[in-house]
Design brief:
By secondary structure, this protein is α/β, with parallel strands linked by helices. The chain has eleven helices and 13 strands. It has helices at residues 36-46, 61-67, 71-79, 83-93, 109-114, 117-120, 140-151, 211-217, 229-237, 257-269, 275-304, and strands spanning 5-9, 30-31, 34-35, 51-56, 97-102, 125-128, 132-135, 154-160, 170-178, 181-189, 200-208, 242-246, 250-253. It has a nine-stranded mixed beta sheet. The protein has a two-stranded antiparallel sheet with strand order 2-3.
Length: 305
């Protein structure tokens, strides 16, 4: 079966970015001039996805407005002769058919995915988490779909992470494989380093068979009192083969301030329209910073004599 539907969970409160997210969704925070969730939707579209459902929560109306038509804005841009900006605005609303369902309670990622059961039906589907943006020559979701087409089983997107980050992610215990795809033996949600079976982490992209829904409906709350997708995938392992695919691409953790800032800088440097001026600014700024640090260290040494 073809993978033509995608689920994007976007119901989180974004507490790590307070106060910026007090009144706006974290998914609408811009990386340069584009909301993070638009990068996610564009990845889905470039991977061949035809229908997207975004799982929202309260105070997430801005996401719906972003992908909707904006009549007043379009009229204003047309009257001002701003053809390029008008085309850009229209392209956003024409990207793909976007549907929405609200997660009424914050009961975890697994519960958010369960909210999409009626939309997905009896088809394999993609999951794209909004906290992860990946810059890649071939979209990550497309890479996973290609792996799914070969295996006809659920595929989890993974990459190796540093030891100090292991406890932040679901970690994979895997057997031998080839071409970057490995059969999963077990999954552990956010283990301590000494308890982790590997440092291969699940990083926000999945292709899952619809069997996951019946499992989620019977999954007890796990860590944090939430229904964990990882726990449901462990049960799925007992019913069918599950694979981990090491995807190619530079991944940014947008849910983390450091990752967000790295994305802003690197995406800006990749833009032809602003790269040169921005690069010059960064160079001059860092030069001055390093100069000040150097003279401060010299002064401290002189004072210590």
């Amino acid at each position: 079966m073809e993978v033509k539907k995608a689920v994007i969970p976007a119901a989180g409160l974004g507490t790590r970015f307070l106060p910026a997210t007090k009144a706006q969704p974290k998914e609408m925070l811009p990386v340069v001039d584009k909301p993070t969730i638009q990068y996610i939707v564009e990845e889905a579209v470039e991977s061949g996805i035809e229908d997207v459902i975004i799982i929202t929560g309260r105070h997430k109306r801005a996401i719906e407005d972003h992908f909707d038509k904006s009549f007043e804005l379009e009229v204003s841009l047309k009257e001002q002769g701003k053809v390029d900006r008008l085309r850009m605005v229209r392209e956003i609303s024409d990207l793909v058919d976007v549907h929405y369902v609200r997660q009424k309670e914050p009961l975890g990622l697994g519960h958010a995915i369960l909210c999409a059961k009626t939309f997905v039906g009896d088809e394999p589907f993609a999951i794209l988490l909004g906290d992860d943006i990946v810059k890649a020559e071939e979209p990550v979701t497309k890479q996973l779909i290609e792996s799914f087409n070969q295996k006809q089983s659920s595929v989890i997107g993974v990459q190796k992470v540093a030891d100090e980050l292991v406890s932040k992610y679901g970690i994979v215990d895997y057997s031998n494989g080839n071409n970057g795809t490995y059969q999963v033996r077990d999954l552990v949600e956010k283990p301590a380093l000494e308890e982790a079976p590997s440092n291969i982490a699940i990083l926000g992209r999945y292709i899952i068979t619809p069997a996951i829904f019946d499992i989620l409906e019977n999954t007890e709350p796990g860590k944090g009192g939430e229904i964990q997708l990882t726990d449901a995938l462990r049960t799925l392992l007992k019913q069918e083969e599950v694979y981990a695919h090491v995807f190619n691409g530079r991944r940014y953790d947008i849910g983390d301030k450091q990752g967000f800032l790295e994305a802003v800088v690197e995406f800006a440097l990749a833009r032809d329209d602003i790269r040169d001026d921005f690069k010059e600014y960064l160079f001059n700024y860092l030069q001055e910073e390093l100069k000040e640090e150097f003279y401060s260290e010299i002064a401290a040494l002189e004072k210590a004599k």
